[in-house]
Amino acid sequence: MAVEADRVISRDLLAWYDLHARTLPWRSPPSAPPPDPYAVWLSEVMLQQTTVAAVKPYYEAFLRRWPSVADLAAAEDAEVMSAWAGLGYYSRARNLLACARAIVRDHQGRFPATAAELRRLPGIGDYTAAAIAAIAFGEEVAVVDGNVERVVARLFAIDTPLPAAKPLIRARAAELTPADRPGDHAQAMMDLGATICTPRRPACAICPVRSDCAAFAAGIQEDLPVKASKGVRPHRRGFAFWVEAEGHVLLVRRPARGLLGGMRALPTSAWNDAPEMDDAPVAADWSIVEKPVRHVFTHFSLDLQVAIARATRANLAEGEWWPIATLSEAGLPTVFDKAARRAMEHRMSLTASC
Ligand code: SF4
Predict the structure, then answer these.
(1) I want to staple 239 with a disulfide (CB 3.0 to 4.6 A). Which of 92, 111, 133, 269 is the partner?
(2) pLDDT at position 271, please?
(3) What is the pTM of this model?
């Protein structure tokens, strides 16, 4: 009986997908030959923690610049990190390069075709492995991200709180996955979660699987999935140092390991409860911009106070003098881009008041 219900859900979902699939640059239309695994992989890595709208221009720029996984594998680390700047979660860019190089080195430049093999590559987790295997290679494997978790929890009225519900959700998602068109099924689930079965106010009235949805039948769709209460995200403070000399600003390269590793940045103090101006890169007459830059990372929020000073363009043990006029080309991560803009606004306000 349950098998028959699963089959009906999958059939209705695919019929809906055939008419309403989102058109996305990395996708093939419903029932068309599958897309290049490189396109699926690149888009899925970019889409983690980011919206489709934010990803599209990055995806297109990456494909223009590195049209194949071999091209990407041969790129300089710094070039790729700069091209990634603004997408956030920079460890993904480092993993992207490591994965491209592993595919060229160990797999003759071809993506492995099963989720189990893909999972062994750097930076490819269960979700991304399943998405590539199902969408690009037609493997009958469930693809479960946060959107799909929500849809499945509602379809089967699973009220166990997350994350404890994950194994059950995964099992249900696997039962729903058809042998025929598993890639289209996966993308249909993603589209349903993104456009109809949304976190708040799901549009059940136009949902193609409403008649088989247990949460809708019970009127509890907005209460699911249940999430275990989260701890409070810690808050940190720090200084970012804007040192300016003859139209240039001092930039440094962050250590390869750790947060924003390998990225160009403004020099900073440590980020903690009580940051120190002693960490400044040069001795100077610092002025501190009153309003800090607020930025939220995955594991903590940060108030970054921008300290500004003029200096002479001396040779420094660390860092490079970058022309302020072309700072937008330095590939600064978002938090430092915000800090740089705050510094430049402050300079302009001082000039205007003179
Ligand atoms: Fe989601 Fe409503 Fe559709 Fe159920 S009927 S899957 S809750 S949109």
Answers:
(1) 269
(2) 94
(3) 0.74
